[in-house]
DNA sequence: ATTCATATCGAAAACGTTTTCGATTTAACG
DNA sequence: CGTTAAATCGAAAACGTTTTCGATATGAAT
């Protein structure tokens, strides 16, 4: 084992624990001579500060928590990567928990993180979350919180988002510009803000271009683990319900890929018969055929940005400075590929 | 804030801290009456034990570390999911770090985890790791360690693996059985055990079926972030070098998908001209065209199994029982799809 | 020699919990 | 009533660190 403590260093040098501690942290009231001596023997004995004791004393763990709906997910794993990268640079480690799109789980995971006393929490909401008391509680307990992607507008904290509405507008507009007259929408669940915003962007694009909005063209997906199957099912239903659809704007790539798969099976040609635009730009979308036109959503940057905001908040809180919450909006862009005519 | 401590409960009830602590943990030497009283006021004051103090006292953090080469990766994210799921059930949280396939990073991350004093470590080696001193050090420090997927045979710890050699043999054999006579192999880097084993399985299948082994048919990929591009490049080179190849066994799906993309671009028909078998069964492989024949590698189960082994080791160490390292081998299976003839 | 400033150190409290062990009370029994 | 056993509690040490604050020593200035 490695139970080398300050005490041991102190004893071997016959000085006090306090001096050893201060020497290691370069306090000004320790002579250069003893500093050198202490650092040398610390190195020699392979001293590593006991994180538990440091945590207890300093009241911080240099650890943050991350709650996301799903780990096996191209977008979210990109976010994770961004967060970890940035956090490491600042000396923070990241505990990752998964809500599996369930509100109950989300609450439980939050409690777990709180009981571990993480220094801050990053999260993207579960689809099932409609009540935000658990988040308000967090904030009233003064635990730094930053939400990203799937946020609640009503919760008072920093956020990192994209302009889902505008991106959806762009996507739908592109379908219109490429000649689509009758455009369906596979939307996400009813609750999450970004699913709502994407729907609104779709609707706005239609009305701005004098295309009547037809609710029967809007299909709902849970966008959970069954995304791919939902894409297939909705594509199938769409064909049964309507024979004049020539374009679909789909809430997320995985669903879009399910739809493409089903259309392919049935013999519907993309983009000749139906054009499709997805959302998120999963890597997969660039290698299926036809390659999928989609909205690129910068997951890695979102993760980095989210940590940056959290870090700032943690720092300001430590220094007892006033906190101002910020909402950072990241750029998206339309990636034109082969699932649409141009 | 929430600075409710044992002391506060003790003061409100006018009893000692020791009794409060013991009451909360159902020690036998506390009367039922006071137990009830303590639990009630603890509930009332919303008492949460201070993890830092508990850690310091008990010398454990109920946290484990996980080091993987890459987060944005279908297989590894499945593993993460399995680990988190299992760990949570046993009350452990998971800190995730990424080595980015670099040996230096891997060492650094290991140090970070050690300095946080995690109760155990799960890891899959970076491609760049040839030296195992850092792992041996871990073991000599008695830190529980379980390796999975990309392991080092020589390191003395528990492991969770698949039989890469046999799986590769099966994959290659399938190519042979479907009529391929001249089979190339896109292998992984030279160091990792599983890359070696897959190569050996390929070779064995050839020799068992009287097909001469031709080293010029073996191409190397780094299998890092450029996997997809490497697949394209190698596919291109392969066609320049040889005009008689009719099958390829490829170290990992992402490279295989790159190869398919390139063949598609050039006009080589799959599987008519060349059959392809990948490895890992990324989700993507089931939706590209042609769908990719591959070896299914159970990431989620591997994660679960790895945590189970780690948990056992942690427990036995706490009870000072002898530790016996185990190697668990998980089943793989050949997924027959459209990139091969049958 | 006295005063003052500066440099250097250490004692000790504190963080909040767990656990040992001794003290006290209560009940039980002859 | 005295003795013993069982039940119930609390004092205190310990985990290892950080930090305040006072103590001492050294040197310079008067």
From TrEMBL, chains A, B:
Cross-referenced CDD domains, in alphabetical order? HTH_LacI (cd01392), PBP1_LacI_sugar_binding-like (cd06267)
Q: Which SMART domains does the UniProt record give?
A: HTH_LACI (SM00354)
Enumerate the InterPro entries for this protein: HTH_LacI (IPR000843), Lambda_DNA-bd_dom_sf (IPR010982), Peripla_BP/Lac1_sug-bd_dom (IPR001761), Peripla_BP_I (IPR028082)
Q: Which Pfam families does the entry mention?
A: LacI, Peripla_BP_1
What Gene Ontology terms describe what this protein does at the molecular function level?
A: DNA-binding transcription factor activity; transcription cis-regulatory region binding
Keywords associated with the record = DNA-binding, Transcription, Transcription regulation
Domain HTH lacI-type intervals: 4-58
> What name goes with this protein?
LacI family transcriptional regulator
Query: Which organism is the protein's source?
Result: Winogradskyella eximia
């Amino acid at each position: 084992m490695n139970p080398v403590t300050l005490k041991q260093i102190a004893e071997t040098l016959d000085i006090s624990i306090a001096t050893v501690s201060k020497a290691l942290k370069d306090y000004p009231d320790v002579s250069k001579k003893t500093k050198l001596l202490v650092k040398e023997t610390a190195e020699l004995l392979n001293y590593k500060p006991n994180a538990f004791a440091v945590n207890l004393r300093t009241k911080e763990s240099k650890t943050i928590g991350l709650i996301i709906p799903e780990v096996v997910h191209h977008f979210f794993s990109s976010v994770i990567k961004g967060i970890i990268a940035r956090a490491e640079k600042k000396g923070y480690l990241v505990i990752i928990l998964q809500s599996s799109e369930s509100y109950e789980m989300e609450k439980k995971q939050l409690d777990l993180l709180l009981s571990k006393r993480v220094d801050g929490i990053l999260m993207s909401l579960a689809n099932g979350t409609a009540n935000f008391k658990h988040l308000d509680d967090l904030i009233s307990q003064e635990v730094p919180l930053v939400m990203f992607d799937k946020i609640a507008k009503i919760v008072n904290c920093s956020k990192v988002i994209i302009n889902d509405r505008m991106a959806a507008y762009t996507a739908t507009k592109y379908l219109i510009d490429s000649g689509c007259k009758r455009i369906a929408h596979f939307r996400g669940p009813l609750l999450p803000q970004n699913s709502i915003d994407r729907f609104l962007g779709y609707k706005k694009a239609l009305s701005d271009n004098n295309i009547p909005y037809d609710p029967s063209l809007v299909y709902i997906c849970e966008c959970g683990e069954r995304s791919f199957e939902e894409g297939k099912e909705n594509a199938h239903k769409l064909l049964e319900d309507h024979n004049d659809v020539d374009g679909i704007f789909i809430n997320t790539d995985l669903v879009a890929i399910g739809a493409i798969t089903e259309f392919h099976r049935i013999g519907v040609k993309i983009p000749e018969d139906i054009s499709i635009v997805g959302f998120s730009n999963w890597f997969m979308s660039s290698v299926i055929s036809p390659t999928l036109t989609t909205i690129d959503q910068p997951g890695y940057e979102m993760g980095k940005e989210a940590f940056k905001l959290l870090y700032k908040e943690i720092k300001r809180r430590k220094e007892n400075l006033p906190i101002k919450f910020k909402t950072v909006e990241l750029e998206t862009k339309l990636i034109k590929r082969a699932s649409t005519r141009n």
